[in-house]
């Protein structure tokens, strides 16, 4: 194994920052790569060197092996760490690194290839004696073979893309009559995401736990495991919360699952860090799901309960050194829980969100770790995964870790793109989660009607009005022409009120009158109620302490657009738009439901209608791809397509009109 003193990180965002940090601590020279969209990203600023590898689209930058290898040659990088996602599980890329004399920090290309296809991996695991879910994983991919196998398996069953994961190319089928449509949809999504439409079928376990084992192997035949992670709380088959240890784990079950995971790694002569994923049913029976031949997103919880640096261990193994510890040396201490902070519109079906980061304040405190690649002023792009940060809490026991995580989420501030902070807080504050009872059905059970927006009180609206009042006063003072300070704020003998008008989630409109009654003291009149807010001082730009109706709280805020202010008062966060900031003729609300707009930036994959075609409510109109997921836009009215402004393969921006429907008002 070749020695190396420099590492190129073929990734972006929080994982690139995390790898760079450990590599630099170990004394390696680090090289970042970046697309045009990431020119000012934190990982670029942090690395010793950085190379521009192309425009924003991943296929022209982070997913282009030749551009990565050219950057390595240009900078003399002797090793490449792929992070996760992008090229991390691309066997051809691992082989290309080897052919170029560059150390690929991960398993061999052969091992990646063996586990990269779910069908082939299941066949291999069955041969190795690893328990597997009953299903179909054969090479015959005809619909007739899949339907015949499904009839033998029975419903419910899962249709899965053999060549990928992350919830893409995956469908749950409750009724076999729905299987043909599920096969077509899963195959289409899989071909678009992974370049392969190969599918497997599995008997669906509807309320299992998703438990995975972290394995570590070297070039000398040593294989150990580092305990488990419970990743049961998922949305669209993508993990949202992870923790270690699993709340229902026993020493005997851990030993059995650990042994199965090590056997899986040994059977393919694995090396480096990897994860073997299982489903665990209520009877403590576990079944192989898949193996991820890379570092996992959730690896920090393992690091926090073992005290190990998995990236540093990856670097050691890649240098050819034997593992510095044995299975007997692995000791789990305390409990760790991680949540994934996503830029997404939770209320609007968890659609990926984009936008400028106006304010980012990560939480701090005992036992808190934050992995992120965020910086104020940067753009959250539509081209990449919407996960922007991970917040991890450790405690001596699970209850302590849970409390610390709850407080960390309460003090996390992210203004700009819509995000799931409040949703995460709702999850970790739920009694079922606190009791350690969550399964993969958790989100469906706890949020059967979807996620509702956080409730805003009148105090929140009044606080927004005071912030915009102060903003207006400050702007007025900057524009004053007289230097006489005694004229500042002069208003004559009549009390002057400033008026603000805000729409609510219930389609009401609130009118608020703000009057300054003293230094830092404001009275807000709302209908027949009065609220008093006292400005106690600003600790730093965008962070103040206020007293609202006698209760002092920290206030984070940012002015995020015309007439808009984002604020976080205590744990509550919201965006408030003053309708009076817009003049007559401004479009400040969405058009009628007959106008179909792009809900986010993305690419049009398929158009299902044509001009002149009749459509009905709920009919599929168009399929978009954004942030690696497919999204289907449905008709909200019955009528005739009168305008079509989209075309297949075209990139569209959020709010762009795609289809117009002339509504049939006779129905």
TrEMBL record:
Domain ATP-grasp: 122-319
Record GO terms (molecular function): ATP binding; biotin carboxylase activity; metal ion binding
PROSITE patterns, per database record: ATP_GRASP (PS50975), BC (PS50979), BIOTIN (PS00188), BIOTINYL_LIPOYL (PS50968), CPSASE_2 (PS00867)
Signal peptide: none
Coiled coil: none
Residues in Biotin carboxylation domain copies: 3-448
Cofactors, names only: biotin
Catalytic reactions on record: N(6)-biotinyl-L-lysyl-[protein] + hydrogencarbonate + ATP = N(6)-carboxybiotinyl-L-lysyl-[protein] + ADP + phosphate + H(+)
SUPFAM superfamilies named in the record: Glutathione synthetase ATP-binding domain-like, PreATP-grasp domain, Rudiment single hybrid motif, Single hybrid motif
Domain Lipoyl-binding: 585-662
Keywords recorded for this protein, A-Z: ATP-binding, Biotin, Ligase, Nucleotide-binding
Pfam families attached to this UniProt entry: Biotin_carb_C, Biotin_carb_N, Biotin_lipoyl, CPSase_L_D2
InterPro entries in the record: ATP-grasp (IPR011761), BC-like_N (IPR005481), Biotin_BS (IPR001882), Biotin_carboxylase_complex (IPR050856), Biotin_carboxylation_dom (IPR011764), Biotin_COase_C (IPR005482), Biotin_lipoyl (IPR000089), CPAse_ATP-bd (IPR005479)
Membrane-spanning intervals of the chain: none
Pathway(s) the chain acts in: Lipid metabolism; malonyl-CoA biosynthesis; malonyl-CoA from acetyl-CoA: step 1/1
Subunit (UniProt): Acetyl-CoA carboxylase is a heterohexamer of biotin carboxyl carrier protein, biotin carboxylase and the two subunits of carboxyl transferase in a 2:2 complex.
Function recorded in the entry: This protein is a component of the acetyl coenzyme A carboxylase complex; first, biotin carboxylase catalyzes the carboxylation of the carrier protein and then the transcarboxylase transfers the carboxyl group to form malonyl-CoA.
Protein's recorded name: Biotin carboxylase
């Amino acid at each position: 194994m070749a020695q190396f003193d420099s590492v190129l990180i073929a990734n972006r965002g929080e994982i690139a920052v995390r790898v760079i940090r450990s590599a630099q601590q170990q004394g390696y020279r680090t090289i970042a790569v970046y697309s045009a969209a990431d020119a000012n990203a934190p990982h670029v600023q942090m690395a010793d060197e950085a190379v521009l590898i192309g425009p924003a689209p991943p296929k022209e930058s982070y997913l282009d092996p030749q551009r990565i290898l050219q950057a390595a040659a240009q900078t003399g990088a002797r090793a490449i760490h792929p992070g996760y996602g992008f090229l991390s599980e691309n066997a051809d890329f691992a082989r290309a690194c080897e052919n170029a004399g560059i150390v690929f920090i991960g398993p061999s290309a052969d091992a990646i290839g063996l586990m990269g296809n779910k069908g082939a991996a299941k066949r291999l695991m069955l041969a190795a004696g690893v328990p597997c879910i009953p299903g179909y994983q054969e090479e015959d991919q005809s619909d007739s073979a899949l339907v015949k196998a499904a009839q033998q398996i029975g419903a419910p069953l899962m249709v899965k893309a053999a060549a990928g994961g992350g919830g893409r190319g995956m469908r749950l089928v409750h009724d076999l009559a729905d299987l043909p449509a599920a096969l077509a949809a899963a195959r289409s999504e899989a071909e678009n995401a992974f370049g392969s439409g190969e599918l497997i079928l599995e008997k669906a376990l509807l309320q299992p736990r998703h438990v995975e084992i972290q394995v570590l192997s070297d070039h000398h035949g040593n294989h150990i495991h580092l305990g488990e992670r419970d990743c049961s709380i998922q949305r669209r088959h993508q993990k949202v919360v992870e923790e270690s240890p699993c709340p229902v784990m026993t020493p005997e079950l851990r030993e059995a699952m650990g042994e199965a995971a090590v056997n899986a790694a040994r059977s393919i002569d694995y090396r480096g860090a990897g994860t073997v994923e299982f489903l665990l049913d209520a009877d403590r029976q576990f079944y192989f799901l898949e193996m991820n031949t890379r570092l996992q997103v959730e690896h920090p919880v393992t690091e926090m309960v073992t005290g190990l640096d998995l990236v540093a261990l990856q670097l050691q193994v890649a240098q050819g050194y034997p593992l510095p510890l044995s299975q007997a040396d692995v000791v789990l201490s305390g409990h760790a829980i991680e949540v994934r902070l996503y830029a997404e519109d939770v209320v609007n079906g968890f659609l990926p969100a984009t936008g400028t980061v106006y304010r980012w304040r990560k939480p701090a405190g005992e036992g808190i770790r934050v992995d992120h690649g965020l910086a104020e002023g940067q753009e959250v792009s539509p081209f990449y995964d919407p996960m922007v940060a991970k917040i991890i809490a450790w405690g001596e026991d699970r209850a302590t870790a849970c409390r610390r995580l709850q407080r960390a989420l309460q003090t996390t501030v992210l203004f700009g793109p819509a995000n799931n902070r409040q949703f995460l807080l709702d999850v970790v504050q739920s009694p079922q989660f606190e009791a350690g009872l969550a399964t993969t059905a958790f989100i469906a059970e706890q949020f059967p009607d979807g996620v509702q927006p956080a409730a805003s009180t009148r105090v929140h609206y009044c606080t927004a009005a005071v912030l915009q009042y102060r903003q207006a006063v400050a702007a007025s003072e900057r524009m004053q022409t007289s230097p006489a300070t005694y004229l500042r704020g002069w208003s004559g003998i009549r009390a002057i009120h400033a008026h603000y008008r805000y729409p609510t989630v219930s389609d009401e409109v609130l009118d608020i009158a703000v009057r300054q009654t003293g230094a830092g003291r404001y009275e807000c009149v709302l209908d027949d109620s009065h609220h008093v807010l006292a400005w106690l001082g600003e600790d730093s730009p965008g962070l103040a302490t206020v007293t609202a109706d006698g209760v002092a709280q920290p206030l984070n805020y940012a002015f995020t657009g015309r007439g808009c202010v984002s604020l976080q008062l205590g744990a509550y966060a919201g965006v408030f738009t003053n309708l009076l900031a817009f003049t007559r003729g401004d479009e400040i609300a969405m058009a009628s439901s007959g106008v179909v707009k792009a809900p986010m930036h993305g690419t049009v994959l398929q158009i299902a209608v044509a001009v002149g075609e009749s459509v009905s409510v709920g009919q599929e109109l168009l399929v978009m791809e954004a942030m690696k997921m497919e999204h289907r836009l449905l008709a909200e009215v019955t009528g005739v397509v009168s305008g079509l402004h989209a075309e297949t393969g075209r990139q569209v921006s959020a709010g762009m009109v795609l289809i117009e429907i002339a509504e049939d008002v006779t129905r």
